[in-house]
Amino acid sequence: MRVIISGGGIGGLTLAMALHAAGIEAEVHEAVAMPKPLGVGINLLPHAVRELTELGLGERVLAAGVPTRELLYATRRGEEVWREDRGLAAGYRWPQVSIHRGTLFMLLLEAAQERLGSAIHLGSRGIAAESDADGAVLHLEGGGVARGDVVVAADGIHSAIRAAWHPEEGAPRWNGSLMWRAVAEHPGYLTGRTMVQAGTSSLKFVCYPIREATAERPALVNFIAERRMDPNTPWAREDWNRPGRIEDFLPDFADWEWPWLSVPSLIRAAPDVWEFPMVDRDPLPEWTRGRVTLLGDAAHPMYPIGSNGASQGILDARSLAFHLATTGEAVAGLRAYEEARRPATAALVQAARGQGPDLVLDLAESRAPDGFAAVGGREAVLPLAELEGIALGYKRKAGFDPVLLNARPSLSARLGESALPR
Asked: Distance (Å, rounded) from C-alpha 374 to C-alpha 339?
Protein backbone atom coordinates (compact mmCIF):
# COMPACT_ATOMS: atom_id res chain seq x y z
CA MET A 1 0.00 0.00 0.00
CA ARG A 2 1.23 3.50 -0.87
CA VAL A 3 -0.09 6.70 0.73
CA ILE A 4 0.49 10.19 -0.70
CA ILE A 5 0.35 13.00 1.88
CA SER A 6 -0.33 16.61 0.88
CA GLY A 7 1.16 18.78 3.62
CA GLY A 8 4.24 18.26 5.73
CA GLY A 9 3.22 19.95 8.96
CA ILE A 10 2.89 18.30 12.36
CA GLY A 11 0.02 16.04 11.29
CA GLY A 12 1.43 15.13 7.88
CA LEU A 13 4.91 14.29 9.18
CA THR A 14 3.50 12.26 12.07
CA LEU A 15 1.35 10.35 9.60
CA ALA A 16 4.34 9.62 7.36
CA MET A 17 6.30 8.17 10.29
CA ALA A 18 3.28 6.24 11.59
CA LEU A 19 2.73 4.68 8.16
CA HIS A 20 6.44 3.86 7.86
CA ALA A 21 6.33 2.16 11.27
CA ALA A 22 3.27 0.19 10.11
CA GLY A 23 5.05 -1.09 7.00
CA ILE A 24 3.10 1.17 4.63
CA GLU A 25 4.90 3.23 2.00
CA ALA A 26 4.40 6.99 2.44
CA GLU A 27 5.33 10.06 0.39
CA VAL A 28 5.00 13.66 1.63
CA HIS A 29 4.58 16.78 -0.50
CA GLU A 30 5.17 19.98 1.49
CA ALA A 31 4.68 23.38 -0.14
CA VAL A 32 7.45 25.16 1.78
CA ALA A 33 10.82 24.72 0.11
CA MET A 34 13.00 25.82 3.04
CA PRO A 35 11.19 25.12 6.34
CA LYS A 36 12.04 27.29 9.34
CA PRO A 37 11.19 26.93 13.05
CA LEU A 38 8.39 29.50 12.99
CA GLY A 39 5.56 30.04 15.43
CA VAL A 40 5.08 30.23 19.17
CA GLY A 41 4.39 27.74 21.95
CA ILE A 42 1.92 24.87 21.93
CA ASN A 43 0.97 22.12 24.35
CA LEU A 44 1.14 18.43 23.60
CA LEU A 45 -1.31 16.60 25.84
CA PRO A 46 -0.51 13.14 27.23
CA HIS A 47 -2.49 11.31 24.55
CA ALA A 48 -0.40 12.99 21.82
CA VAL A 49 2.87 12.47 23.70
CA ARG A 50 1.93 8.80 23.99
CA GLU A 51 1.66 8.52 20.20
CA LEU A 52 4.97 10.28 19.61
CA THR A 53 6.60 8.10 22.27
CA GLU A 54 5.36 4.96 20.55
CA LEU A 55 6.93 6.29 17.36
CA GLY A 56 10.26 6.48 19.20
CA LEU A 57 10.23 10.28 19.57
CA GLY A 58 9.30 10.71 23.23
CA GLU A 59 12.78 11.48 24.54
CA ARG A 60 13.47 14.00 21.76
CA VAL A 61 10.20 15.82 22.39
CA LEU A 62 10.67 15.95 26.14
CA ALA A 63 14.24 17.21 25.80
CA ALA A 64 13.05 20.03 23.53
CA GLY A 65 10.22 21.25 25.78
CA VAL A 66 8.99 21.48 29.36
CA PRO A 67 6.95 18.78 31.12
CA THR A 68 3.94 20.74 32.39
CA ARG A 69 3.44 20.15 36.12
CA GLU A 70 0.12 21.87 36.78
CA LEU A 71 -2.63 24.01 35.29
CA LEU A 72 -3.83 27.05 37.25
CA TYR A 73 -7.04 28.90 36.46
CA ALA A 74 -7.09 32.39 37.98
CA THR A 75 -9.22 35.52 38.03
CA ARG A 76 -7.96 38.81 36.62
CA ARG A 77 -6.93 39.62 40.21
CA GLY A 78 -4.71 36.55 40.35
CA GLU A 79 -7.08 34.65 42.67
CA GLU A 80 -6.97 30.90 42.26
CA VAL A 81 -10.13 29.47 40.70
CA TRP A 82 -8.94 25.92 40.08
CA ARG A 83 -5.63 24.12 40.10
CA GLU A 84 -4.99 20.61 38.83
CA ASP A 85 -2.00 18.36 38.31
CA ARG A 86 -1.03 17.62 34.72
CA GLY A 87 0.95 14.94 32.95
CA LEU A 88 2.85 12.46 35.08
CA ALA A 89 1.81 14.25 38.28
CA ALA A 90 -1.84 13.57 37.37
CA GLY A 91 -1.28 9.83 37.00
CA TYR A 92 -0.73 9.63 33.25
CA ARG A 93 1.91 7.27 31.92
CA TRP A 94 3.06 10.04 29.59
CA PRO A 95 3.86 13.71 30.30
CA GLN A 96 2.20 16.83 28.97
CA VAL A 97 4.85 18.83 27.12
CA SER A 98 4.90 22.56 26.42
CA ILE A 99 7.12 23.22 23.41
CA HIS A 100 7.83 25.80 20.72
CA ARG A 101 5.80 24.86 17.65
CA GLY A 102 8.75 25.53 15.33
CA THR A 103 11.02 23.36 17.45
CA LEU A 104 8.52 20.50 17.32
CA PHE A 105 8.08 20.89 13.58
CA MET A 106 11.81 20.81 12.87
CA LEU A 107 12.21 17.81 15.19
CA LEU A 108 9.50 15.91 13.29
CA LEU A 109 10.92 16.94 9.91
CA GLU A 110 14.40 15.73 10.85
CA ALA A 111 13.03 12.42 12.14
CA ALA A 112 10.87 11.92 9.04
CA GLN A 113 13.81 12.61 6.73
CA GLU A 114 15.92 10.13 8.69
CA ARG A 115 13.28 7.43 8.27
CA LEU A 116 11.76 8.15 4.86
CA GLY A 117 14.66 9.88 3.11
CA SER A 118 13.81 11.11 -0.38
CA ALA A 119 10.10 10.41 0.13
CA ILE A 120 9.84 13.83 1.84
CA HIS A 121 9.44 16.39 -0.98
CA LEU A 122 9.87 20.06 -0.03
CA GLY A 123 8.70 22.88 -2.28
CA SER A 124 5.98 20.62 -3.67
CA ARG A 125 2.41 21.89 -3.26
CA GLY A 126 -0.64 19.69 -3.66
CA ILE A 127 -3.53 21.53 -5.32
CA ALA A 128 -6.15 18.85 -6.04
CA ALA A 129 -6.83 15.14 -5.64
CA GLU A 130 -8.98 12.48 -7.23
CA SER A 131 -9.42 8.75 -7.05
CA ASP A 132 -11.00 5.77 -8.76
CA ALA A 133 -11.31 2.07 -8.02
CA ASP A 134 -7.61 1.50 -8.68
CA GLY A 135 -5.94 4.32 -6.76
CA ALA A 136 -5.63 8.03 -6.01
CA VAL A 137 -3.74 10.95 -7.53
CA LEU A 138 -2.45 14.15 -5.97
CA HIS A 139 -2.05 16.94 -8.52
CA LEU A 140 0.92 19.19 -7.83
CA GLU A 141 1.44 22.85 -8.59
CA GLY A 142 3.41 23.09 -11.82
CA GLY A 143 1.72 20.11 -13.46
CA GLY A 144 3.22 17.07 -11.75
CA VAL A 145 1.30 14.25 -10.09
CA ALA A 146 1.89 11.75 -7.31
CA ARG A 147 0.06 8.41 -7.46
CA GLY A 148 -0.78 5.98 -4.71
CA ASP A 149 -3.53 3.89 -3.18
CA VAL A 150 -4.62 6.76 -0.89
CA VAL A 151 -4.21 10.55 -0.82
CA VAL A 152 -4.37 12.37 2.52
CA ALA A 153 -4.91 16.14 2.67
CA ALA A 154 -2.96 17.32 5.72
CA ASP A 155 -2.58 20.82 4.31
CA GLY A 156 -4.06 22.88 7.13
CA ILE A 157 -6.98 25.23 7.61
CA HIS A 158 -6.64 26.49 4.03
CA SER A 159 -6.64 22.98 2.57
CA ALA A 160 -6.85 23.09 -1.22
CA ILE A 161 -8.61 19.73 -1.34
CA ARG A 162 -11.23 20.67 1.26
CA ALA A 163 -11.80 23.97 -0.55
CA ALA A 164 -12.41 22.11 -3.82
CA TRP A 165 -14.92 19.84 -2.12
CA HIS A 166 -16.67 22.64 -0.21
CA PRO A 167 -16.29 25.91 -2.16
CA GLU A 168 -19.27 27.37 -0.31
CA GLU A 169 -17.36 27.42 2.99
CA GLY A 170 -15.33 30.49 2.17
CA ALA A 171 -13.07 31.94 4.85
CA PRO A 172 -12.70 30.34 8.28
CA ARG A 173 -15.25 31.46 10.86
CA TRP A 174 -14.08 34.18 13.26
CA ASN A 175 -15.68 34.36 16.72
CA GLY A 176 -14.71 37.99 17.37
CA SER A 177 -11.69 37.26 19.56
CA LEU A 178 -8.20 38.40 18.68
CA MET A 179 -5.08 36.82 20.16
CA TRP A 180 -1.63 38.31 20.50
CA ARG A 181 0.93 35.53 20.91
CA ALA A 182 4.61 35.76 21.82
CA VAL A 183 7.50 34.20 23.70
CA ALA A 184 9.64 36.10 26.20
CA GLU A 185 12.56 35.39 28.48
CA HIS A 186 11.45 35.52 32.12
CA PRO A 187 12.86 34.48 35.51
CA GLY A 188 10.00 32.00 35.93
CA TYR A 189 6.99 31.78 38.26
CA LEU A 190 5.30 29.31 40.64
CA THR A 191 6.62 25.76 40.01
CA GLY A 192 8.55 26.77 36.88
CA ARG A 193 6.33 24.29 35.02
CA THR A 194 2.93 25.90 35.57
CA MET A 195 0.44 26.70 32.83
CA VAL A 196 -1.81 29.66 33.69
CA GLN A 197 -5.20 30.61 32.26
CA ALA A 198 -6.58 33.82 33.74
CA GLY A 199 -9.40 36.29 33.19
CA THR A 200 -12.59 35.57 31.25
CA SER A 201 -13.66 34.75 27.72
CA SER A 202 -13.80 38.51 27.05
CA LEU A 203 -10.29 39.25 28.27
CA LYS A 204 -7.92 36.36 28.91
CA PHE A 205 -4.24 35.79 29.52
CA VAL A 206 -2.55 32.40 29.08
CA CYS A 207 1.10 31.62 29.74
CA TYR A 208 3.39 28.63 30.18
CA PRO A 209 7.14 27.98 30.00
CA ILE A 210 8.53 26.24 26.93
CA ARG A 211 12.12 26.34 28.22
CA GLU A 212 13.06 25.99 31.85
CA ALA A 213 15.29 28.44 33.68
CA THR A 214 18.86 27.38 34.50
CA ALA A 215 21.77 29.08 36.26
CA GLU A 216 22.95 30.33 32.87
CA ARG A 217 19.70 31.54 31.31
CA PRO A 218 16.13 32.53 32.19
CA ALA A 219 13.04 30.58 31.31
CA LEU A 220 11.33 31.12 27.95
CA VAL A 221 7.62 31.73 28.51
CA ASN A 222 4.93 31.56 25.86
CA PHE A 223 1.94 33.86 26.34
CA ILE A 224 -1.37 34.58 24.67
CA ALA A 225 -3.30 37.78 25.35
CA GLU A 226 -6.86 37.48 24.08
CA ARG A 227 -9.57 40.13 23.77
CA ARG A 228 -13.15 39.77 22.55
CA MET A 229 -14.08 42.36 19.95
CA ASP A 230 -17.02 43.33 17.79
CA PRO A 231 -17.00 40.71 14.98
CA ASN A 232 -17.46 43.57 12.50
CA THR A 233 -14.15 45.13 13.53
CA PRO A 234 -12.04 45.51 10.35
CA TRP A 235 -9.06 43.38 11.36
CA ALA A 236 -7.03 41.44 8.79
CA ARG A 237 -8.79 38.24 9.74
CA GLU A 238 -7.24 36.01 7.15
CA ASP A 239 -3.65 36.98 7.94
CA TRP A 240 -3.22 35.25 11.26
CA ASN A 241 0.55 35.20 11.27
CA ARG A 242 1.20 38.92 11.00
CA PRO A 243 3.23 41.04 13.42
CA GLY A 244 1.21 42.66 16.19
CA ARG A 245 1.78 45.69 18.39
CA ILE A 246 2.13 45.51 22.16
CA GLU A 247 0.44 48.89 22.55
CA ASP A 248 -2.75 47.42 21.06
CA PHE A 249 -3.32 45.16 24.07
CA LEU A 250 -0.93 46.01 26.93
CA PRO A 251 -3.27 48.68 28.39
CA ASP A 252 -5.95 45.99 28.92
CA PHE A 253 -3.58 44.10 31.24
CA ALA A 254 -1.83 47.07 32.86
CA ASP A 255 -3.14 46.30 36.38
CA TRP A 256 -2.74 42.50 36.20
CA GLU A 257 -0.05 42.57 38.87
CA TRP A 258 -0.14 39.46 41.02
CA PRO A 259 2.09 38.37 43.92
CA TRP A 260 3.45 35.52 41.81
CA LEU A 261 3.53 37.11 38.31
CA SER A 262 3.55 40.56 36.72
CA VAL A 263 1.61 40.17 33.48
CA PRO A 264 2.61 43.62 32.13
CA SER A 265 6.30 42.87 32.73
CA LEU A 266 6.03 39.56 30.88
CA ILE A 267 4.28 41.25 27.95
CA ARG A 268 6.88 44.01 27.75
CA ALA A 269 9.69 41.42 27.69
CA ALA A 270 8.53 39.99 24.33
CA PRO A 271 10.79 41.00 21.43
CA ASP A 272 8.08 40.22 18.86
CA VAL A 273 4.33 39.72 18.98
CA TRP A 274 2.11 37.95 16.47
CA GLU A 275 -1.57 38.62 15.90
CA PHE A 276 -4.05 35.80 15.29
CA PRO A 277 -7.86 35.79 15.03
CA MET A 278 -9.70 32.99 16.85
CA VAL A 279 -11.04 30.96 13.93
CA ASP A 280 -12.43 27.52 13.18
CA ARG A 281 -14.72 25.81 10.67
CA ASP A 282 -17.99 23.94 11.06
CA PRO A 283 -17.63 20.15 11.37
CA LEU A 284 -18.06 18.31 8.07
CA PRO A 285 -20.54 15.50 7.42
CA GLU A 286 -17.73 13.52 5.79
CA TRP A 287 -13.94 13.61 5.48
CA THR A 288 -13.47 10.98 2.80
CA ARG A 289 -14.34 10.73 -0.87
CA GLY A 290 -13.24 7.53 -2.52
CA ARG A 291 -9.57 7.07 -1.63
CA VAL A 292 -8.97 10.68 -0.57
CA THR A 293 -9.37 11.87 3.03
CA LEU A 294 -8.66 14.85 5.29
CA LEU A 295 -6.49 15.03 8.41
CA GLY A 296 -5.70 17.58 11.14
CA ASP A 297 -6.69 21.21 10.55
CA ALA A 298 -7.82 20.35 7.03
CA ALA A 299 -10.46 18.12 8.63
CA HIS A 300 -11.34 19.85 11.91
CA PRO A 301 -9.80 23.26 12.65
CA MET A 302 -10.81 24.28 16.17
CA TYR A 303 -10.29 27.15 18.56
CA PRO A 304 -7.07 26.87 20.57
CA ILE A 305 -8.97 26.14 23.77
CA GLY A 306 -8.01 23.13 25.85
CA SER A 307 -4.61 22.70 24.15
CA ASN A 308 -5.94 20.28 21.57
CA GLY A 309 -5.19 21.50 18.05
CA ALA A 310 -1.83 19.86 17.35
CA SER A 311 -2.62 16.95 19.65
CA GLN A 312 -5.70 15.99 17.65
CA GLY A 313 -3.74 16.06 14.39
CA ILE A 314 -1.24 13.63 15.91
CA LEU A 315 -4.08 11.36 17.02
CA ASP A 316 -5.58 11.50 13.52
CA ALA A 317 -2.25 10.40 12.06
CA ARG A 318 -1.79 7.44 14.33
CA SER A 319 -5.42 6.38 13.96
CA LEU A 320 -5.27 6.50 10.16
CA ALA A 321 -2.07 4.45 10.04
CA PHE A 322 -3.55 1.95 12.50
CA HIS A 323 -6.75 1.41 10.50
CA LEU A 324 -4.99 1.14 7.16
CA ALA A 325 -2.64 -1.43 8.66
CA THR A 326 -5.25 -3.50 10.49
CA THR A 327 -7.80 -3.57 7.66
CA GLY A 328 -5.12 -4.05 5.01
CA GLU A 329 -7.32 -2.28 2.47
CA ALA A 330 -7.51 1.38 1.46
CA VAL A 331 -11.26 2.06 1.36
CA ALA A 332 -12.07 0.04 4.48
CA GLY A 333 -9.18 1.64 6.36
CA LEU A 334 -10.32 5.15 5.47
CA ARG A 335 -13.85 4.32 6.52
CA ALA A 336 -12.69 2.98 9.90
CA TYR A 337 -10.45 6.02 10.44
CA GLU A 338 -13.28 8.44 9.78
CA GLU A 339 -15.67 6.52 12.03
CA ALA A 340 -13.12 6.66 14.83
CA ARG A 341 -12.06 10.29 14.49
CA ARG A 342 -14.74 12.46 12.88
CA PRO A 343 -17.41 12.28 15.63
CA ALA A 344 -14.79 12.78 18.34
CA THR A 345 -13.26 15.86 16.74
CA ALA A 346 -16.67 17.33 15.85
CA ALA A 347 -17.56 17.16 19.54
CA LEU A 348 -14.30 18.93 20.38
CA VAL A 349 -14.97 21.74 17.89
CA GLN A 350 -18.32 22.34 19.59
CA ALA A 351 -16.80 22.04 23.08
CA ALA A 352 -14.20 24.67 22.21
CA ARG A 353 -16.97 27.01 21.04
CA GLY A 354 -18.51 26.51 24.47
CA GLN A 355 -15.13 27.40 26.04
CA GLY A 356 -14.25 23.83 26.98
CA PRO A 357 -12.61 23.69 30.42
CA ASP A 358 -12.07 27.49 30.32
CA LEU A 359 -15.75 27.79 31.28
CA VAL A 360 -14.64 27.92 34.92
CA LEU A 361 -13.20 31.41 34.34
CA ASP A 362 -16.54 32.91 33.30
CA LEU A 363 -18.30 31.09 36.13
CA ALA A 364 -15.90 32.65 38.62
CA GLU A 365 -16.44 36.15 37.20
CA SER A 366 -20.24 35.85 37.07
CA ARG A 367 -20.57 34.44 40.59
CA ALA A 368 -17.90 36.56 42.28
CA PRO A 369 -17.53 39.79 40.23
CA ASP A 370 -15.88 41.56 43.17
CA GLY A 371 -13.59 38.68 44.13
CA PHE A 372 -13.98 35.54 46.20
CA ALA A 373 -13.51 37.32 49.52
CA ALA A 374 -16.76 39.24 48.90
CA VAL A 375 -18.79 36.01 48.64
CA GLY A 376 -17.20 34.01 51.44
CA GLY A 377 -14.51 32.23 49.44
CA ARG A 378 -14.33 30.30 46.21
CA GLU A 379 -15.96 27.15 47.59
CA ALA A 380 -19.11 29.14 48.37
CA VAL A 381 -19.77 29.85 44.69
CA LEU A 382 -17.68 27.23 42.86
CA PRO A 383 -17.76 23.90 44.67
CA LEU A 384 -14.80 21.62 44.05
CA ALA A 385 -17.09 18.88 42.70
CA GLU A 386 -18.39 21.22 39.98
CA LEU A 387 -14.88 22.22 38.92
CA GLU A 388 -13.71 18.61 38.84
CA GLY A 389 -16.74 17.63 36.77
CA ILE A 390 -16.04 20.31 34.14
CA ALA A 391 -12.38 19.29 33.89
CA LEU A 392 -13.06 15.57 33.67
CA GLY A 393 -15.88 16.00 31.16
CA TYR A 394 -13.57 17.81 28.77
CA LYS A 395 -10.80 15.24 29.20
CA ARG A 396 -13.19 12.47 28.26
CA LYS A 397 -14.36 14.33 25.15
CA ALA A 398 -10.77 15.01 24.14
CA GLY A 399 -9.61 11.43 24.78
CA PHE A 400 -7.21 12.08 27.63
CA ASP A 401 -9.05 10.90 30.71
CA PRO A 402 -6.06 9.41 32.59
CA VAL A 403 -7.70 6.11 33.48
CA LEU A 404 -9.04 5.52 29.97
CA LEU A 405 -5.88 6.65 28.21
CA ASN A 406 -3.59 4.53 30.37
CA ALA A 407 -5.75 1.46 29.72
CA ARG A 408 -6.38 2.04 26.00
CA PRO A 409 -4.68 -0.44 23.65
CA SER A 410 -1.83 0.85 21.51
CA LEU A 411 -2.38 2.22 18.02
CA SER A 412 0.84 0.56 16.88
CA ALA A 413 0.19 -2.05 14.20
CA ARG A 414 1.95 -3.60 11.21
CA LEU A 415 0.31 -4.15 7.84
CA GLY A 416 -1.08 -7.66 7.75
CA GLU A 417 -0.62 -8.19 11.49
CA SER A 418 -2.70 -7.63 14.59
CA ALA A 419 -2.25 -4.53 16.73
CA LEU A 420 0.92 -4.54 18.77
CA PRO A 421 0.79 -4.82 22.58
CA ARG A 422 0.64 -1.49 24.37
From this structure: 49
